[in-house]
Amino acid sequence: MKLAHLILAHTMHNQLARLIKRLHHPDADIYIHVDKKTDIAQFNDLQLTVPVFFITTRVSVDWGNYNMIEATLNSFEEITSKNTSYTHINLLSSQDYPLKNASQIQNFLFDNLGKTFMRSYAIPEEWDEPLGRLTRYNFGDYKFPGKHLLQNLANRILPDRKTPAGLKMYGRSQWFTITPQCALYVINYLKNNPSVRLFFKHTWACDELVFQTILLNSPLKDSIVNDHLRYIKFKRGDSRPKTLTMTDASDLTASGKLYARKFDSTIDYEILDYLDSLAI
Asked: How confident is the model over 178-199, as a mean pLDDT?
C-alpha cells in the first residue's frame, strides 16, 4: 500500500521544499502540479533531496475559476494511471504543512481504507452563502476581451441558472483526502455529463462545490467522512484563510488534525520550526 500526495504549487519554492521533506516516507509518492504560468525549471532542484513527480498536463490556474478543478482532475487522472496501488490521494497546496509526522499520517490513512475525508455542508440548509454563485454566471475561465462586460450583461438579462441533472448541492473546503475510486468517479462523471461540467465552469469558486456535490449524489456517498483532516482558520468576513503564526500554536497542537493551512515562512518561519519539533 502507498499514499499519494498531490501538491498544487505556483510559488513558495523554499516552503515547498520544506513541505515535501516533511511528507517524505517510503510508502508515499509526492506529485506536484506547477501552475502553467510558472517556469517549472525553478522547481527542478526539488528532486535532488526527495523523489518527486511533476504532473505533465499542467493548467494555468486562477483563484475561484474552474481551471483549479481542471488542474486537480488532470493530476488525479495522471496519478491513477500509474502502476501503483494508492490507498488515498492527499490534496495539498504549497502553503499547507503537516501537524503529524509522516508515519502517523500513513498509519491513520492505512487504517481507514476506502474512506474519503472531505468537509461538506448541504446547500442551502447548512450553508447558504453559495446560493448566489449557483444562480449567476461566472466567465472567469474565458480569455477574451470584454468577458466581464458580457458576464454582467448575462446576469442582467438571462434568467437565474438552474442546477443540472437533479443534483443536490453540497460544498465547503476544496482541500481533502480522497480515494482513487472516488477520484475516478468524479473524472468519469464530468466526462459523461457535459452539462454538469459546463454548469460548474460558469460557477465562481466551484472548487468548493464540485467534488462534494458529485460524490454525495453518488453510490459512493457512504464512503465520505465529513472531516477534511485539516485545521484552517478564517477571520470573520474573509474569503481567504488566515496566515497561521506562533500565536496559533496551541490551537494547532490541540486540533488533532493531520494538516493545517495556510503558512507563509516570510511572515513567520518559527511556527514551521515549532511544528517540526513536535513531529518526531
From this structure: 98
Q: Which three cell numbers stand for residue 218?
A: 453518488
Q: Which contiguous run of DSSP H or E holds residue 134? A: helix 131-135
Whole-model pTM: value is: 0.94
Longest CA–CA span in the chain (Å) reads: 59
53: its cell numbers: 513527480
Q: Peptide bond preceding 98: is omega within 30 degrees of 0, i.e. cis?
A: no
- Provide the grid cell at 41: 525549471
Whether pLDDT at 145 is above 70: yes
Q: Among residues 179, 162, 175, which one has the least CA distance to residue 215?
A: 179
- Residue 237 has a pLDDT of 67
Distance between CA atoms of residues 187 and 173, nearest Å: 19
Q: How far apart are CA 26 and CA 8, in angstroms?
A: 21
Residue 90 C-alpha from the chain's centroid: 8
> CA-to-CA distance for 205 and 212, rounded, in angstroms?
13
CA 215 to CA 261: how far, in whole Å? Answer: 24
Q: Which H or E element spans position 2?
A: strand 2-9
Helix (H, G, I), strand (E, B) or coil at 258: coil
Residue 10's pLDDT is 85
- Across the chain, what does the average pLDDT equal? 94
Q: pLDDT tier at 63 (50, 70, 90 boundaries)?
A: confident
d(CA 219, CA 221): 6
